[in-house]
Amino acid sequence: EAGVTQFPSHSVIEKGQTVTLRCDPISGHDNLYWYRRVMGKEIKFLLHFVKESKQDESGMPNNRFLAERTGGTYSTLKVQPAELEDSGVYFCASRKTGVSTGELFFGEGSRLTVL
Amino acid sequence: GNSVTQMEGPVTLSEEAFLTINCTYTATGYPSLFWYVQYPGEGLQLLLKATKADDKGSNKGFEATYRKETTSFHLEKGSVQVSDSAVYFCARFGSGGSYIPTFGRGTSLIVHP
């Protein structure tokens, strides 16, 4: 069974540019989460999908961030326009409702560097 | 809100030394508690978990006990190996109206031969 996959693994862009990160969850996992970790700090929650619906987007920092999960399968996270403070590692995680209490399955992360 | 506090790293140890990484959580409700590990170049993976007070989670020689009275879930290992070098994250999930897993800042462990 394939794990959670994220693309790209590393992206370097200039301030003001646009970047789109993609996450493919484990097949059949209805819950999908986006998190971000800035160097040395806690992994901060961004948003949570259940199937194609945004269940909780309280962690999204501002309207430069747009997340979608069309069809309830893969998800994208777009940052437009990117700012310096958006640099960090963006993690995607998934889980299947009712299977295991709270355990998340993570991708390897997408490292974003904004210059 | 719900939060998790971990000791700051890095923690640097010699092989076969005893390891403790402290973790405390906010006491809202009765969350499940987790330790995740991130090895270099990989994603986070679940190391162990405990779902109720006094439960002990264990895996790969690591242990952590859910202590409700001290709101703690400290990670311990009796004899670390070089291969244990990684970043360890404490996390809580559930209760208090929130079903969003909350993570600590991570503690880097470096084990020297």
Helices, strands, pairings?
The complex is a heterodimer of chains A (about 120) and B (about 110).
Chain A: E1 5-7, E2 10-13, E3 19-24, E4 31-37, E5 43-50, E6 53-56, E7 65-68, E8 75-79, E9 88-95, E10 105-106, E11 110-114
Parallel strand pairs in A: 2-11
Antiparallel strand pairs in A: 1-3, 3-8, 4-5, 4-9, 5-6, 7-8, 9-10, 9-11
Chain B: E1 4-6, E2 11-14, E3 19-21, E4 23-25, E5 32-38, E6 45-50, E7 56-59, E8 62-65, E9 75-77, E10 86-93, E11 102-103, E12 107-112
Parallel strand pairs in B: 2-12
Antiparallel strand pairs in B: 1-4, 3-9, 5-6, 5-10, 7-8, 8-9, 10-11, 10-12
Characteristics of this structure?
heterodimer; A: 115 residues; mainly beta; seven-stranded mixed sheet; four-stranded antiparallel sheet; 0% helix; B: 113 residues; six-stranded mixed sheet; 47% strand
Radius of gyration of chain B, in Å, reads 14 Å
Helix content of chain A: under 10%
- Along the chain, the helix and strand elements of chain A come as EEEEEEEEEEE
Helix percentage range of chain B: under 10%
Profile the largest sheet of chain B. Answer: 6 strands, mixed
- Assembly form of the protein: heterodimer
Report how far the terminal alpha carbons of chain A are from each other: 37 Å
Task: Give a count of the beta strands of chain B, DSSP E runs of length 2 or more.
Answer: 12
Which of globular, elongated, flat, extended, rod-shaped describes the shape of chain A? globular
Low-confidence stretches of chain B: none
Mean pLDDT across residues of chain B: 91
> What separation lies between the terminal Cα atoms of chain B?
41 Å
Describe the sheet with the most strands of chain A.
7 strands, mixed
Note the beta-strand portion of chain B.
Answer: over 45%
Q: Give the overall pLDDT of chain A as a whole number.
A: 92
N-to-C SSE string of chain B, H for helix and E for strand: EEEEEEEEEEEE
Radius of gyration of chain A: 13 Å
